Records
---
Amino acid sequence: MNGRKITSEEAEKSLLKAPEKAQRGDRLNFEDGLALYNCRDIWRLGRLAEQITFDRVGRNVYYSINRHINYTNICRINCRFCGFSRRPGQADGYVLSVEEVAEQARQAHQQGATEVHIVGGVHPELPFNYYRLIVEEIRRACPKLHIKAFTAVEIIDMAQKADLSMDEILMQLQEAGLGSLPGGGAEILSEEYFRRACPDKPGPEKWLAVHAAAHRRGLMTNATMLYGYIESPAERIEHLIKLRKLQDESLRNGKGRFQCFVPLPFIRPHEKPGEPSPATPDDDSTDVLTDLKTIAISRLMLDNIDHVKAFWPMLGVKLAQIALCFGANDLDGTVQQYRIVEKNRDNTTNSLSAEQIRALISETGRTPVRRDAFYRPI
Ligand code: V47
Ligand code: SF4
């Protein structure tokens, strides 16, 4: 756990100051962020985050027609929170061929998708060529389809397998047709957290380095935060501050940047077949107030990232809708099928039609806007 704590007096002072600072456009610091987690007036916090969203990026709520494709669930890294991965050799492990991935992308495109989101486990044997061919094949079959693919840990794995630098890997994928990087794998950017939650995964500095390298190459990326597992509120705030710092640097360079922040609530996995029960976290999954506070505080702390996504396949449709009143302005998209978690928070569907998404947004009084991968209205 992170040792930094603030006294109740400091919390009170920050609590009074933080909303004023946010409204003035002043940057919130660690103490402000933590004080906001102690805030009991959830409505005031929500109104503030919503107002800041309107001032900064307007009243549109974005969604896309997209498809998530998971090319394999076989993974040599055993993150303790993950229910998606299977160990090499396990019976229900799968790997899609390049053609199968491309076919899913082609179908999605035919059905109106403008974007595919492709990620998978860190397979011990798939060579770099497999990943490059996926991108090339989709680019060839659907020249206009945006390819958002591969988290930082997959990029690092490709670099190791091909004995190339991270930058070289990004360059080759970009040349093949890669359009942007998704935000997965950031978890909570703290060495101590990684040691406890995902000790085999390349550490937080590596995640930041991949995104910094991608931004330098002009690639847009997203950033996630897996919250509600074993981290403290202080660690969440430090995570946000690290992202904000990298974004400052990337904005100074003026090429790529983080487009969107995606808070992901921990969803307890079912047992993985053939393995002992997944590690039980010493904390339960989040309550709804923590979900809403996390959305609002992310919006307030991340004063240099434009979009905050309420990812309904994990949050659940109902919570994602109310998150739009707490600082979120993006609902991801139609998704079709989501394998990373088995169920979402309200056990609802894994696929929404564009009409359903537009209705959910309209009910909040905001304007639904179908977007492309760079938040341009379609
Ligand atoms: O990297 C794994 C997380 C991520 C669990 O960039 C879990 O637009 C909750 O990154 N409970 C993959 N979360 C998903 C992801 C993502 C999703 C939507 C949009 C975008 C984007 C990115 O899911 C993993 C990991 O951090 N995760 N296990 C779990 N049990
Ligand atoms: Fe593998 Fe990603 Fe699951 Fe970790 S979160 S075990 S890297 S699939």
Note: The chain is about 45% helix and 10% strand.
---
Amino acid sequence: MNKNIIQLHDKKFEPFISYEQIDRAIQYIADRLNKEMKGKNPLFVPVLNGAFMFAGDLFKKLDFPCEISFVKFSSYVGTTSTEDVKQLLGFETDVKGRTVVIVEDIIDTGLTIHKIIDQLKQKEAREVKIATLLFKPDAFKGNYKVDYIGMKIPNDFIVGYGLDYNQYGRNYKDIYKIVE
Ligand code: 5GP
């Protein structure tokens, strides 16, 4: 057995994206945010739990003063996205008239972000931008633009770098993909 394979619960995962590749993708997003968001006083809204590592690395690369406020939703059970998105931790900052940048680890069906955009519109945000480290184009069902994408990936279930399989695997520095 490949010694780099990891086991979480009943499933095995193999190395897929190295931290070096992740870091390059984050730098690409950060360079664009540094150009386009400076002077807009944006509110960054990372989505827990998955985005905590991405958020930590991304914000260290931003070179202008900015505000950060985490939100939490749940839609994933096991290895599949459910249609039911529950809000567990909401917006603590007034978003009215603000530029808001949602920060996600991965966009799959796009449903979670869709719900967050709806809420931000209701709260009268001036504009909503979306930054995601990973994007699965073949699974995406949204009708909105994803503004900042670090990397496009196929429709495989992945873990590591903040992403879990039933709450385990978030701690790995690299990203792993499920072994079918
Ligand atoms: P969506 O609402 O776009 O279908 O799903 C978004 C959320 O589902 C992400 O924030 C993430 O928590 C979870 N998710 C989507 N794809 C994957 C995946 O391949 N692996 C893991 N661990 N979580 C995923």
Note: Residues 47, 50, 75-76, 81, 104-112, 157-159, 163-165 surround guanosine-5'-monophosphate (CB under 6 Å).
---
Amino acid sequence: MRIDILSALPRLLDSYFNESILRRAQQKGLAEVHVHDLRDFSEDKHRRVDDYPFGGGAGMVMSVQPIHKAITALKSERHYDEVIYMSPDGELLDQPLVNRMSSLRNIIILCGHYKGVDERVREHLVTREVSIGDYVLSGGELPAAVLSDALIRLLPGVLGDETSALSDSFQDGLVAPPAYTRPEQYGDWQVPGVLLSGHEARIHEWRLQQSLERTRQRRPGMLKDEK
Ligand code: ADE
């Protein structure tokens, strides 16, 4: 998967993509993330990427020109499956949406800022709008990083243990069971005996029951959604 991110503040994203699992995924050639500075595409002499809103009002609006130029330049190099605009009024991101999107090959993610983008960008250039939750952040960079992380960790070979993405919370409609590591006893705090039993079937059953119980307590809606 190749992800091209368009941002007016590209440095915000550098460290996130250059550490940990996301860096390894790129080193292994499983994912490519390219962050582009929208100012590089601005034809304004001060490299501006925003302007005052027509009709007045507070806040700046991101201009069509640099976004159009950046998207056109990228599209001249390869086909893109989606041009995604991160926006608080987009489709809510959840695991099923991430799963569906994880089979895409090339995507562009546009990060908004200020009061958003000129509506003509949404009308003519964007193919999908995604929100990471019902709250407003000061820019689309964190949402773009959230979406990219959720997508890249699903790509085959990215996680060390191939099954670990499948056992994530939400993947089977349940939240994940509790996990423990050494030591077996920390002061009075003891690891549940079943996990030390070596009995695979009993461990599997215990984890399933824990997941069901936790889902009932924490996300009852997930159980109701199923039927
Ligand atoms: N930009 C600002 N807030 C956002 C959100 N909640 N989701 C996606 N993009 C955003």
Note: The mean pLDDT is 94.
---
Amino acid sequence: MNTRENPTNDPSLESWVESARGHGDFPIQNLPFGVFTRRTDGELACVGVAIGDSALDLSACWEAGLFAGTPVEHVNVFARDSLNDFVEAGPEAWSAVRGRVSELLRTDTSTLRDDAAVRDTALVEQGKIAMQLPMRIGDYTDFYASAYHATNVGKMFRPDGEPLLPNYKHLPVGYHGRASSIVVSGEEVRRPMGQTKADDAAPTFGPCRLLDYELEMGFFIGVENSLGARVSVEAAKKHIFGMVIVNDWSARDIQKWEYVPLGPFNAKNFATSVSPWVVTLEALAPFQVKHTTRGADDPPLLEYLKGADEDAYDIQLEVGIASAQMRTVGTAPHIVSRGSFRDMFWTITQMAAHHTSTGCNLRVGDLLASGTVSGPEESARGCLLELTWRGTNPITLPTREERKFLADGDELVMRGWCERAGATRIGFGECRGIVTPAE
Ligand code: MN
């Protein structure tokens, strides 16, 4: 696969940005795209790339003529408050820009390194910027692609039946989510109000009592398909710009009462958090692995879902919780689970192909999320519903506080990264969010 041989992923590359040479998330082999503002009044947002502990302002680079000869040389698509205009320039532009940034940041390229005026304007410490939502998201879809997660949930809610519903292994199950309430990492998440019903009582309206997170990966559509035009599994990768970590906050008590028969509604529409840096499929190519979760006993795939045998990604994921008390005394987030995105039953290419199989058009900036990433081990369960088995097996934090579900003041910290022999480790940074009380 020639993307794996992309010169930007060469492990021998080094950057003159010193903080990019450690073992952090953002070495020169990553170069994820995001949107930020400097923390000064009136400063406009711009598109940037993470490099080590810094971010490179691509708008400033464009103004300095550093993108001459690339497909974006005529319009500064980086002087924007979203990635959409840049992404709409197409896959050749993504690749050319990432290639140019790689070249500019390389140890042996002096253009930017030795131009103090441009360099000091364009290169800013990440501690001095505020990350924004990376894309203007028109539509958001959430899948349910981990068979481990779906099996656990099925065992809890339908103890007498088969844990997986009959459709599960035939099609990637999903629902249309809410784009307007997607927020960037770091924004607070208010505990929702909602209607719930205890088994032997009348429904009541009040603060959600069973607030949960869901660890997921999301991918942004970068190339649209027109209404009526299906996207095949083989072609799907060319329609995907890159990936982020997603926290699909979930109100389990609201969900339980409302979900029949049309699926989740208010239980999911109050907030979804995403990590700010979009890691491109080009950067992720070295971590593409065989898709091995479909077993010999599983039903055969229909033709339109075949062809994804190489389309899994080995992305390591972990979830930490820091209560308000833990943050007060300076205790690091307590890691409650670790897993890998390679354990998903459906691939991102199958999800995109299935989504468009009716002719449904996906547009630039649409976010498709995977569903909770759970693995075969108990330690790889990606939400509290599973980890505490519906609250029957609470988690104990280092402060001896117990958690069945999330309490006000809890901060969720999700991290993701890729590493393997022969490639440079790259990461997604963090997806954070603090729960604030219902109002
Ligand atoms: Mn979800």
Note: The radius of gyration is 22 Å.
